[in-house]
Design goal:
By secondary structure, the chain is α+β, with helices and mostly antiparallel strands. The chain has one domain. It is globular, with a radius of gyration of 14 Å. Bound molecules: iron/sulfur cluster (SF4).
């Protein structure tokens, strides 16, 4: 069986949404935001209700995020992983 590459592992990340550019989510930096699908919390003020169900089909693939980031090389300072609850997903480090 071939070794599992980190690219393959990253494809398991369930991405519920992508913002190509934000000037506010990473203070002082230009960034993209990756919204991870799934959150066990139920905060009364949550404005991302569509991201709460971890079992909901993810509308985006990690490869889409990579593609976007390639087109933004030299323009973005960073990427914000938001949610949902990104740390719930085992694929996050990859
Ligand atoms: S996505 Fe954020 S605000 Fe919404 S329930 Fe989860 S932790 Fe709370």
């Amino acid at each position: 069986m071939p070794a599992r590459t980190s690219h393959t592992a990253a494809e398991a990340l369930r991405v519920g949404g992508i913002t190509p550019l934000t000037t506010i989510d990473f203070p002082g930096r230009l960034a993209a935001v990756v919204f991870c699908q799934g959150c066990p919390w139920r905060c009364g003020y949550c404005h991302n209700a569509g991201l709460l169900d971890a079992a909901a089909p993810a509308p985006h693939r990690w490869s889409e995020v990579e593609q976007l980031l390639h087109t933004r090389r030299g323009l973005l300072d960073g990427v914000v992983f938001s949610g949902g609850e990104p740390t719930l997903q085992a694929a996050l480090p990859d």
